[in-house]
Amino acid sequence: MPRQFIRSVPQLLAHIARRSESKTLAACLTEQQNSFARSLVEGGRYSSMSSVFQHGLEPLRQKTETVETAALRELVQRRLNGPMISATEMEIRVAGMIERKRRVVRVDS
Question: What does the pLDDT read at residue 95?
Answer without folding.
Answer: 96
